[in-house]
Amino acid sequence: MPQGAEWLIILAIVILVFGAAKLPELARGTGQALRIFKSETKGLRDEDDEKGAKGEKTEKPAELTASEQERISELERREAEIKAERERLSGN
User: Fold this and answer.
1) Is residue 18 within 8 Å of residue 10, measured between CB atoms?
2) What is the predicted pLDDT for the residue at 44?
3) What are φ and ψ of residue 84, in 5° steps?
4) Following CA atoms 10, 15, 16, 21 in sequence, which dihedral angle do they give, to the nearest 10 degrees?
5) Taking Cα atoms as reference points, which of 36, 60, 40, 58 lies closest to residue 48?
6) Per-residue pLDDT tens over the stretch 32-73
7) Mean pLDDT of all residues in the chain?
8) Three-state SS at 56
9) pLDDT average, residue stretch 65-92
10) End-to-end alpha-carbon separation of the chain, Å?
11) Phi and psi based region of residue 55 (left: phi greater than 0; alpha: psi -120 to 50; beta: remaining)
């Protein structure tokens, strides 16, 4: 963790990058984002607790459809081709 002088340097850099007028707006936006994140994670935990209390099982991820599996195979094939081409070019 940064010490006292390091915090001052970080603060000075932030002021130079964003400007003093933007700092309150930036802090306000960060605070709102943290509040939203906390409320969403709390909601997810509450849902899990309710399911556990009712004896319900949590949902499994859905199986991939055939078209999704084909798409993944195609992307993996293309990735292998790119890797082979990169190796061929780096060898020259």
Assistant:
1) no
2) 83
3) -65, -40
4) 170
5) 58
6) 998 999 988 888 888 877 777 766 655 556 788 888 888 888
7) 82
8) coil
9) 84
10) 47
11) left
